[in-house]
User: Which sequence fits this backbone?
């Protein structure tokens, strides 16, 4: 049984640790390897996308509620940060956190309204939210700068030159990403995360089993909005300029969905992988076909391909491919009847010793291991 | 007083157009449980085709309907057969949203690529004329658009109520399994239903092109109000969509007097959120709507 579990469960722990180490090394080394400030700034943009996609995945990945309108929270976070600095003059980093908190507060009533409906209606509501915010921020010129945009003051001294600023913001985004990944990982392994995944698989059954589905969904939604707002605020501090058309854009929201779906919404690093691929593609297409609308066509086709052929994402798809070339799991048991009897005996003994938790833990591990 | 009357008349005319477009959306949702985000992109595509037809031949844009309506019908059937029906049933609703969203992006991108982002407008000989109606001025183009919408809604109603195909379509919407049991080929009916929905987009888009300036990203402007209408009316209910379209169109038109055009648009979204708070399944849909 244990052998079957490792086979289905993917890579061994040592290899995983090595991969993680390599990832951290690449991220830390990137700014010194980047040949010029432009590439470095692209790196910051991709990091920002990675933070956004991972934040999105707190709702999309755990509960299966696909929000096309998460740009609402990143835009609000950016504007909240900028407006707080301009109007109250507080420390920019404090403004960033306060902006996140404000957006999290706003997300509570929005979540209560929009999480009452499922599936398609939820997506419609998320789109509507972005459109209404675009309208408000464009029209309310006296407060938000309207269509002229909003200039966000730089958080660093003027002595910090642009390349250095890119480098600092690259590491800041990386740090935020690390926090997010850790939080996602922790939720993934918690009882709370299990409840959210139950919502994703079958909400009615989860409710019948006593999972407080609405509260769980709402908490995940607010956490996701908070992190998305932080990402938006950090981007605003880096870029220094906000325009409603780009901040409250369904396109940005759809990038988050595309990145997460492409990488795999059920895996920790899926959105990050998707962000690297899609982020690079977006920058490339904008660079090459910026004058025409051709980059929209490219993104649309990419999204359609992912939805039609890879709805589970690259990581599971690659896992299945690797699985194909490995020795097939035999339908005949690979342990002798003697071993099996021995295992049963120890299992029964453990059960009788009054440790039901170990059994449930074991079954959890087994079911997780079997599903790729 | 005449300002109020003017708004009322304009609201009814606008509501009629909204009703036609929302009817298409409820058709897709009824037959396939698909929320078609690309509906408004097809609307703009039809408007562009009408503009291109008029500017290259000099004929009336309404004549382009002879080409666009059958073309869109075939496109709709093909879309349902080749793309939508390939999605897994378990995640159909969610994934169809993303799939149709990507179609909308492709259409917007291609329109920008082929016709550039310049704003376009059809010049009509009767474009500036208006009729007086109890002291309210009504532009002729708006009346024509409303007439188109009313005619096609009536045709849609007759098709659904009086023909055998309509009966099969209604049966498929109400209960697909039962429809299959009594021998209806629901696959084919769903394809035709989808084509029918897209054909309404062709008519709506042409009506729209008569009196508005068009540009590739205009469809974002339409998607919100249309989606709000079908949620308020209750997903999948055609009468619900029609009533919601008239009420919201009227409301928007009336609110334009005190608030101005931009803020009046928020009315749709406020109605949407209010509906979710009071009746998440919409005012006319059954419990079906809440699940999707």
Assistant:
């Amino acid at each position: 049984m244990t052998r079957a579990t490792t086979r289905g469960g993917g890579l061994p722990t040592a290899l995983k640790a090595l991969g993680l180490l390599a990832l951290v090394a690449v991220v830390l080394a990137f700014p010194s390897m980047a040949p010029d400030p432009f590439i470095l700034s692209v790196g910051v943009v991709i990091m920002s996308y990675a933070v956004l996609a991972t934040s999105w995945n707190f709702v999309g990945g755990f509960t299966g509620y696909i929000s096309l309108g998460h740009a609402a929270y990143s835009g609000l976070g950016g504007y909240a940060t900028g407006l707080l600095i301009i109007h109250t003059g507080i420390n920019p980093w404090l403004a960033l956190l306060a902006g996140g908190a404000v957006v999290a507060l706003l997300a509570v009533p929005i979540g209560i309204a929009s999480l009452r409906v499922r599936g398609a209606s939820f997506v419609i509501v998320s789109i509507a939210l972005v459109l209404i915010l675009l309208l408000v921020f464009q029209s309310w010129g006296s407060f938000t700068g309207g269509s002229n945009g909003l200039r966000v003051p730089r958080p660093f001294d003027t002595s910090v030159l642009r390349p250095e600023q890119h480098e600092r913001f690259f590491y800041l985004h990386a740090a935020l990403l690390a926090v997010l990944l850790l939080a996602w990982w922790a939720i993934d392994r918690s009882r709370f995360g299990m409840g959210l995944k139950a919502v994703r698989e079958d909400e009615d059954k989860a409710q019948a089993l006593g999972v407080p589905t609405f509260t769980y969904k709402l908490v995940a939604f607010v956490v996701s909005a908070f992190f998305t707002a932080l990402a938006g605020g950090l981007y605003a501090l880096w870029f220094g300029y906000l325009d409603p058309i780009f901040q409250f854009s369904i396109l940005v929201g759809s990038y988050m969905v595309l990145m997460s779906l492409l990488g795999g919404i059920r895996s920790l690093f899926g959105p990050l992988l998707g962000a690297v691929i899609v982020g690079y593609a977006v920058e490339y297409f904008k660079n090459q076909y910026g004058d025409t609308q051709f980059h929209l066509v490219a993104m649309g086709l990419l999204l359609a391909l992912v939805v039609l052929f890879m709805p589970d994402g690259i990581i599971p798809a690659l896992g299945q491919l690797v699985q194909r070339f490995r020795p097939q799991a035999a339908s005949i048991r690979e342990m002798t009847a003697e071993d099996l009897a021995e295992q049963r005996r120890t299992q029964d003994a453990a059960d009788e010793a009054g440790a039901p938790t170990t059994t449930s833990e074991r079954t959890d591990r087994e079911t997780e291991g079997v599903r790729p | 007083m005449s300002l109020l009357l003017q708004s009322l008349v304009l609201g009814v005319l606008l509501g009629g157009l909204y009703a036609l477009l929302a009817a298409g959306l409820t058709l897709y949702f009824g037959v396939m449980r698909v929320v078609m985000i690309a509906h408004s992109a097809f609307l703009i595509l039809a408007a562009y085709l009408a503009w291109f037809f008029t500017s290259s031949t000099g004929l009336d844009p309404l004549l382009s309907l002879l080409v666009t309506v059958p073309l869109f019908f075939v496109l709709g059937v093909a879309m349902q057969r080749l793309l939508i029906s390939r999605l897994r049933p378990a995640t159909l609703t969610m994934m169809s949203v993303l799939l149709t969203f990507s179609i909308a992006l492709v259409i917007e991108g291609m329109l920008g690529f082929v016709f550039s982002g310049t704003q376009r407008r059809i010049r009509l000989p009767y474009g500036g004329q208006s009729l007086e109606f109890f002291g309210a001025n009504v532009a002729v183009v708006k009346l024509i658009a409303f007439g188109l919408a009313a005619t096609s809604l009536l045709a849609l109603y007759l098709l659904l109520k009086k023909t055998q195909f309509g009966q099969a379509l209604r049966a498929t919407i109400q209960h697909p399994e039962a429809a299959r049991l009594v021998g209806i080929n629901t696959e084919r009916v769903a394809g035709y239903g989808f084509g029918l929905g897209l054909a309404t987009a062709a008519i709506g888009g042409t009506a729209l092109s008569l009196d508005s300036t068009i540009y590739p990203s205009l469809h974002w402007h339409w998607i919100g109000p249309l989606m709000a209408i079908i949620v308020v009316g209750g997903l999948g209910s055609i009468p619900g969509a029609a009533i919601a379209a008239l009420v919201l169109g009227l409301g928007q038109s009336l609110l334009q007097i005190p608030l101005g055009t931009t803020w009046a648009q928020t009315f749709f979204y406020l109605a949407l959120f209010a509906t979710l708070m009071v009746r998440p399944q919409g005012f006319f849909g059954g419990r079906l709507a809440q699940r999707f």
Notes: Chain A touches chain B at residues 64, 66, 68, 113-114, 116-121, 123-125, 127-129, 131-132, 135-136, 138-139, 250-251, 254, 257, 261, 292-304, 307-308, 311 (CB under 8 Å). Chain A is about 80% helix and 0% strand. Residues 1-8, 356-372 of chain A have pLDDT under 50 and may be disordered.
